[in-house]
Design a protein that fits this description.
This protein is of the alpha/beta class. The chain has one domain: Rossmann fold (3-Layer(aba) Sandwich), CATH 3.40.50.720. The chain is built from eleven helices and eight strands. An eight-stranded mixed sheet has the order 3-2-1-4-5-6-7-8, with helices on both faces. A hairpin with a 2-residue loop joins strand 5 and strand 6. The longest helix has 20 residues. It starts with a helix and ends in a 5-residue tail after the last helix.
Length: 279
């Protein structure tokens, strides 16, 4: 791939970095990242990856833009109310950078489609907002052998970890299984500081860029915890669990399955499940 004069100017601040340079920018342009959830986490991740020149970005989300989203989901605007999130996300990312290809999946990620969608990408960003969706992403990435960045946010706290399947600690090594329905409140129940989503989504975008470039030290085998109230970051070392049901010595999970709904609800009307991606 040969960078054009316009691309050299657009990505000049990347090219000036010895760790990136022209060859690194070409890697980004050839890179493919899937973002599951065009919400609080997926919004900053998508915007920065688009600006960085990641050549192909996929967005999975079945939701439409709601007024309550606009406090933190910066890919969407007031004029987008009622518009599918994947459409407004694609519009914003393409407006930032017409170099890139944006592919949209206006559907829920489910056990019967997850591996097929994920397999077309180099790296996956989990921007979902409930436990069943997060465990599905983790399991699908394991079976598709795709690295991914997990992040979660609630109130004033965020956490993140990067997983390289079969090589590093996976999501189930730490959390094993979803909590009982209703045991952990959602953002719609407990609230979330809007800018917290931006901090954690940017961390996920950073991990994706580092992976594509092959530079730095990924956030593997370490859970990063951020407390916005104290402005404190800490990392907790986490080891692979030999009894992990997904990647352990004797795994019990051999195929994808859709987990139980996060709360006892009407599947036709429940926002927290039908509109699963996007904190």
């Amino acid at each position: 791939m040969q960078l054009t004069e316009e691309q050299i100017e657009r990505y000049s601040r990347h090219i000036l970095l010895p760790e990136v340079g022209g060859k690194g920018q070409e890697k980004l342009l050839a890179g493919r990242v899937l973002i599951v959830g065009a919400g609080g986490l997926g919004s900053p991740a998508g915007l920065y990856l688009a600006a960085a020149g990641v050549g192909k970005i996929g967005i999975v989300d079945s939701d439409v833009v709601d007024l309550t989203n606009l406090q933190r989901q910066i890919m969407h605007e007031t004029a987008d109310l009622g518009v599918p999130k994947v459409n407004s996300a694609m519009t914003r990312m393409r407006a930032i950078n017409p170099d890139i290809e944006v592919r949209v999946y206006p559907k829920k990620l489910m056990a019967d489609n997850a591996v097929d969608i994920i397999s077309d990408y180099d790296f996956v960003i989990d921007g979902t907002d409930n436990f069943p969706a997060k465990f599905l992403v983790a399991d699908a990435c394991h079976f598709a052998d795709k690295p991914y960045s997990h992040a979660g946010i609630l109130r004033f706290t965020g956490q993140a970890i990067t997983v390289i399947p079969r090589k590093t600690t996976c999501y189930r090594c730490i959390f094993n299984a979803p909590p009982p329905p209703g045991a952990v409140p959602s953002c719609s129940q407990a609230g979330v500081l809007g800018v917290l989503a931006g901090v954690m989504g940017c961390i996920q975008a950073t991990e994706a860029a580092k992976y594509l470039l092959g530079i730095g030290e990924l956030l593997t085998d370490r859970l990063l915890v951020y407390d916005a109230l104290s402005m404190g970051f800490r990392t907790v070392n986490v080891a692979r669990n030999r009894k992990c049901p997904l990647c352990g010595d004797s795994p019990t999970i051999s195929r994808l399955q859709d987990e139980e709904r996060p709360i006892a609800c009407d599947p036709e009307t429940c926002d927290c499940y039908q509109n699963e991606p996007g904190n």
